[in-house]
Design brief:
Elements lengths: L4 H14 L8 H14 L7 H11 L8 E6 L2 E6 L13 H14 L9 H10 L21 H10 L4 E5 L8 E13 L2 E8 L5 E5 L3 E6 L12 H4 L15 E8 L3 H6 L7 E2 L2 H10 L6 E8 L3 H8 L5 E5 L1 H21 L2
Antiparallel strand pairs: 1-2, 3-4, 3-7, 4-5, 5-6, 8-10, 8-11, 9-10
Helix pairs in contact: 1-2, 1-3, 4-5
Length: 344
């Protein structure tokens, strides 16, 4: 094997690309991908002919890699016949095996990921013994299409563009969208896939129970997200994000009965308990509120926030801003009307 750094680096990246089962690479793609890595590593670019020779070299001693050549959409693609093959593969040390066993043992206790069949195969292959669960996460066993969780996880982690066929509760007609998946997020016992539309790059989210079919599109180039999505969701409760709305300072009173629930499980990560002068000012403005605690949060109002605030009933009252207070008042008034119709 050539010992120069450039050749070893090329073999390493080619090895990763040839074992990839989520994308189809022709010789042009492989050359571009390898050169991107070489530039990042401070090494000179190589020609397509060089990559062709590298692939041919891998097929002979000492590697004996079995490489398939096939056509996809008119392109002549190449990959390892066995996706588990690697020219750098070696037996795991005892320390590495023990570490993997511990990780699998932990992951295997997640009730929310029940459709990861590969996990069970790993357990068997590594001789992992079953044990009593010590961590149990909330899971909705009746959630529709929960089997799509594994499929979407696979495509998201491997950066594969997908076509989603979906419907809404207000319109059961089937719709399709070409979608770049970035993140799976769970909220209120429901899973969502978050990503960008291929057409305009707008960030969208789809609940898994409204997705009817997922079709991988490996021939479509995946475009990474340009922002930190986790940071974007720090400003909201739940998953609904309105890009045209700003963060608002929301102040609410909570009764003595419920204040400890709010303290130990904040409505939003920005939640603070108001003190001293701020409280005195509010008590003068709202003299009729009872004994309790006053809190504030800073987030973008959405459906999930309003529902969460309403869920405490009379134990939580929004004091400011007026827009949220009025929206909750309207919702409660409509509830009173509906219940008035069914009281006997």
């Amino acid at each position: 094997m050539p010992t120069n750094k450039n050749a070893l680096t090329r073999y390493k990246y080619l090895d990763e690309l040839l074992s990839d089962r989520h994308h189809f690479f022709d010789i042009h793609d492989l050359t571009d991908r390898v050169n991107e890595k070489l530039i990042t590593s401070g090494l000179p670019e190589v020609t397509q002919r060089c990559i062709e020779k590298d692939i041919n070299y891998l097929e002979y001693a000492p590697f004996f890699a079995e490489i398939e050549r096939f056509r996809v959409s008119g392109r002549r693609c190449v990959q390892y016949a066995d996706p588990s093959f690697s020219i750098f593969k070696k037996e795991l040390s005892e320390e590495e095996s023990n570490l993997i066993l511990e990780v699998l043992n932990t992951i295997g206790q997640f009730d929310g990921l029940t459709h990861f069949e590969w996990l069970e195969r790993f357990k068997i292959g590594l001789g992992l013994k079953e044990r009593t669960k010590v961590i149990c996460f909330s899971n909705n066993p009746y959630l529709q299409n929960s089997n799509l969780l594994g499929v979407l996880f696979d495509n998201t982690s491997n950066e594969v563009v997908v076509e989603l066929e979906y419907h809404t509760f207000s319109d059961t007609g089937k719709k399709t969208i070409v979608f770049h998946p970035y993140m799976l997020k769970q909220y209120n016992n429901r899973w969502y896939i978050i990503g960008a539309a291929n057409s305009d790059r707008k960030i969208l989210n789809f609940a898994l129970d409204r997705i009817d079919k997922v079709t991988p599109l490996p021939e479509v180039k995946f475009v990474p997200c340009e922002e930190d999505l986790a940071e974007r969701f720090e400003d909201i409760v739940g998953v609904t994000l309105y890009e045209d709305r700003e963060v608002e300072h929301i102040i609410f009173w909570v009764s003595d009965y419920s204040k400890d629930y709010i303290i130990t499980k904040p409505i939003h990560e920005s939640q603070k308990s108001l003190r001293n002068n701020a409280i005195n000012t509010l008590l003068k403005k709202y003299p009729n509120i009872g004994s309790g605690r006053i809190f504030s949060i800073d987030c973008i109002p959405n459906y999930e926030l309003i529902r969460e605030l309403c869920s405490f009933g009379k134990e939580l009252i929004v004091l400011e801003p007026s827009s949220i207070k009025d929206e909750i008042f309207k919702r409660i008034s409509l509830m009173v009307e509906e219940y008035s119709c069914v009281r006997t």
